[in-house]
Amino acid sequence: MSYDHQQLSSRMAHAIRFLAADAVNRAKSGHPGMPLGMADVATVLFSRYLKFNPNVPRWFDRDRFVLSAGHGSMLLYSLLYLLGYQDISLEDIKNFRQLGAKTAGHPEYGHLQGVEMTTGPLGQGIASAVGMAVAERRLNARFGTALCNHHTYVIAGDGCLMEGVSEEAIALAGHLKLNKLIVFWDNNNITIDGTVDKSSSVDQLKRFEAVGWKTLSVDGHDQQAVAAAIEEAHHADCPVLIACKTVIGFGSPAKQGTSGCHGSPLGDDERAAMAANLQWPYAPFEIPADVLSAWREAAQRSVAVYDEWCKKAAAAGKPFAEMINNDLPKNWDKALNAMKEEAIREQSKVATRKASQMCLEKIVPHVPEIVGGSADLAASNLTFVKGMKTVVAEDYDGNNLMYGIREHAMGAIMNGLALHGGVIPYGGTFFVFSDYVRPSIRLAALMGLRVIYVLTHDSIGVGEDGPTHQPVEHLASYRAMPNVLMFRPCDVVETAEAWQLALTTENAPSLLALSRQNLPLLRTSSHRNLTAKGGYVISDVSEGSRRQATIIATGSEVSLAVEAQQKLREEGIETAVVSMPCTELFDRQDEKYRRKILGRAPRIVVEAAAKFGWDKYLGNKGEIIGMDGFGASAPASELYAHFGITSAAVVAAVKKYCR
Q1: Whether residue 494 lies in the annotated active site
Q2: Model confidence over 314-342: pLDDT tens digits?
Q3: Which letter does DSSP use for residue 112 in this model?
Q4: How far apart are CA 202 and CA 243, in angstroms?
Q5: What is the DSSP code (8-state) at residue 330?
Q6: Does the structure show a pLDDT above 70 at 136?
Q7: DSSP labels for 194-244?
């Protein structure tokens, strides 16, 4: 039987529907409703408009597609298989949600080339897409349309739009007039618990319009209407929301339009009923030759465009290649190394947040990929340095983003900037407010992204602002998070070393917890990056003496430990002070090194934060001096005394174990 173009396009959508339904049925778990409902929209987008090359999936100037509604992952997996991406097979589709499968329950960055980011936590996808759109506009402004000119498309559901992070992100997108950002809203009026109107009466179109978006409404099952909306969106001067009215579980006679098909398999009987309803007389996982051929042909639409782009990219030379590959320039940290030596000579006594700004003054001019920013706290985080230029709607060629009071969006946008490529993002807020950013930090860790957080006001040293602004449990919580480098430097040199490590670590986020209060310069040499070891002896016993105790500290408490060391020495007790700016890096060292640094003598840990997690470093004898509860409002010096985090307390603890 022959089919006209419209019929064939409908059958192409049905191929998505049935691969999704079959995979979920086979796995006995999953979310078939969204793929069935959005198959027509996806077919139009991927077969007619999306710019990509399945033979070169990481082509820099490809359009980006983010499945923000990540639970509908089989929509994306079906598309990648049908389009002929080389790293996904029909067997991978059949192994959906199985141990070790590339086709995880939610899309995971790095498992498949066509997956632009890990999604699943609702709202994160649409927010990170804003970061991708910012990166595209910035590189377009810098290198021109011939080298960087692509769209960022998103499929988002009601859950994505309800999550608060979406409000923060779309407001900034509208403010920046990101006209290359197009979001398809799967407007199916269904959530897990029932219909949307049971929990929300928000007019989403008016909401988006209020923050500067253009909005369009279409029947999500009318492919021509969807195509017309995309055409119109391409000519907008601002981001566009296309509200696609769909039926969740489209084609399933008994379950379509209900929450019953959101997160449960259709079952064999309902699959058979859907096949009869949609006139799809094929076995599970069987795709008719004409449909597969149509998809594979559609996948080649942009190959000629790619070939032409490669010529232009080659002509652009090394600066463009280095930037899109996120390669740090040669000798990028030469000025930073010189600054460390100068700090030692001058015995610079500054807060580590100031030390971080001093580092940025030496980094930003030499690393063109850097894009900084802060959640309206640049004056306190000290994230903005001389020569930086803020990105605005009229000029995207800047290296600073003013996120406003939007920590949650800042984190997600930073992930999008890093995922896009050509950008190394950093962002600042108070350490205690990193709680707002935690979901994005976790995703950055899961995806292995180089994003850097400048987290100032790192302890009870915040002082008078009180316990709402004093982080206590935060260090322990981020140390517990896999694939995160949690730095807490003690002086200018360690801060610079932390920045060097953060910028050269390409597969993990780095967090710098920085002090409000001034701290003395403790390091006597900067020839080696000792922070790279995670922990090291910063002040050893007197020459020829036996170590009687080890004092382990981080950040502002390292100077307190050194003060205690001097008092103990005066009483004839020799101790070594270990600075441990990054426990994650210390734990990676071999056992011989760790034993050498920690020694066999009793160990005292001092940190103005929760004690949780330090027990493993104590050995057979020792104790932890830290916080057992929240802080209080008072001058910092009084708080340290009140909570017993003092050199006198360290001296007393050491004496207890050295009798």
Answers
A1: no
A2: 999 999 999 999 999 999 999 999 999 99
A3: B
A4: 14
A5: T
A6: yes
A7: EEGGGT----HHHHHHHTT-EEEEEETT-HHHHHHHHHHHTT-SS-EEEEE
> Residue 638: which H helix or E strand, with range?
helix 636-642
pLDDT tens per residue, range 587-607: 999 999 999 999 999 999 999
**Kind plus residue range of the DSSP H or E element containing 424:** strand 424-430
Strand pairing report for 485-487 and 510-514: parallel
Residue 293 confidence class, pLDDT cut points 50, 70, 90 = very high
Question: With bands split at pLDDT 50, 70 and 90, how would you rate the model's confidence at 3?
Answer: confident
Q: Which residues contact 188 (CB under 8 A, 6 or more apart)?
A: 33, 34, 37, 157, 158, 245, 246, 247, 248, 257
Cα(first)–Cα(last) distance of the chain, in Å? 94
How far, CA to CA in Å, does 350 sit from each of 88, 255, 427, 511? 53, 64, 21, 19
CA distances from 648 to 263, 275, 556, 637, 642 (A): 59, 78, 16, 14, 12
User: How does the average pLDDT of the chain come out, rounded?
Assistant: 97
SS3 610: strand
Q: Average pLDDT of 53-73?
A: 98
Strands 190-191, 194-195: pairing is: antiparallel
Residue whose C-alpha is closest to residue 33's, from 158, 202, 173, 214: 158
The helix/strand/coil state of 283 is coil
Amino acid 4: pLDDT: 85
Q: Which residues are 437's β-sheet partners?
A: none
Query: Rounded to whole angstroms, how far apart are CA atoms 137 and 397?
Result: 8
SS (H, E, C) 342-391: HHHHHCCCEEHHHHHHHHHHHHHHHCCCEEEEECCCHHHHCCCCCCCCEC
* pLDDT beyond 70 at 1: no
Pick from 481, 529, 523: nearest CA to 501: 529
Spell out where 467-599 has E strands: 485-487, 510-514, 518-519, 536-539, 549-553, 575-579
| pLDDT above 70: residue 231 | yes
By the 8 A CB rule, do 491 and 467 touch?
no
**Cβ-contact 274, 251 below 8 angstroms:** yes
List the structure tokens of 364: 């930003």
Sign of the torsion formed by the C-alpha atoms of 326, 376, 134 and 392: negative
Can you give the pTM of this predicted structure?
Answer: 0.98
Reply yes or no on whether the pLDDT at 2 is more than 70. no
**pLDDT, tens digit, 9 for 90 and up, residues 411-435:** 999 999 999 999 999 999 999 999 9
Tokens of 44: 């139009």
What average pLDDT does the segment 476-481 reach? Answer: 98
Catalytic residue, chosen from 136, 270, 407, 497, is 407
